[in-house]
Every structure is written in structure tokens, then in C-alpha cells.
Specification:
AS_sf, Amidase domain-containing protein, 7 helices, globular
């Protein structure tokens, strides 16, 4: 079996495991970044695209999830989980989205 066939199958398997509510709408994805193949072959095209605001504007993350991903460093996250202000599930979900 050719590596490209295996690669496509594995990408499809991975894609199927991502919950639909965690998927970024295509309208939010800069051109040339819609697929891994496009991302690799068009790297110069999006090299200067600023994607920093996408998490804040895409609507996938709640206010609490944005706080988790933007306001804490690793020590702060660990402290907040130890103090029961955050759960491991909340932190994991925020970063997975």
C-alpha cells in the first residue's frame, strides 16, 4: 500500500475523532490552511497571516475557556486545578478546542 493511501486513511480517521462542535468553520480558516497538504505546499502564502484573534472571534470557546487559554501559564493552571478552581477536564477541553 502506498504511503499516500495510508496517510489519507490516517488523516480521515483522525478527522472523524474530532467532535463537530470543536471544528472551526471554513470561513474562519485562512486560504491555504484548509488541509495539511495545502498547509505544507502553500507555506509561503500564509506565512504572514495573523491568526491570534481566531480563538476570540470564532465562537468555539466560551468566556471561561478563553480565560483558561489566555490568562494562565502552566504554573497558574496547576495551582488553579490544585485549588479546585479549575478541573482537568475544563483545561483539557479548552485547549483541545
Amino acid at each position: 500500500m502506498a504511503y499516500t493511501t495510508i496517510s489519507q486513511r490516517k488523516l480521515a480517521e483522525l478527522d472523524a475523532k474530532i467532535p463537530s462542535e470543536w471544528r472551526l468553520p471554513e470561513s474562519q480558516i485562512p486560504p491555504g490552511m484548509l488541509s495539511p497538504a495545502e498547509s505544507i505546499t502553500n507555506v509561503k502564502q500564509y506565512g504572514r497571516v495573523n491568526v491570534m484573534d481566531i480563538p476570540r472571534t470564532c465562537g468555539l470557546l466560551s468566556a471561561r475557556e478563553l480565560e483558561i487559554t489566555e490568562q494562565y501559564d502552566v504554573r497558574g493552571l496547576l495551582r488553579a486545578m490544585a485549588d479546585k478552581r479549575l478541573t482537568a477536564e475544563e483545561v483539557t477541553t479548552a485547549f483541545c478546542k
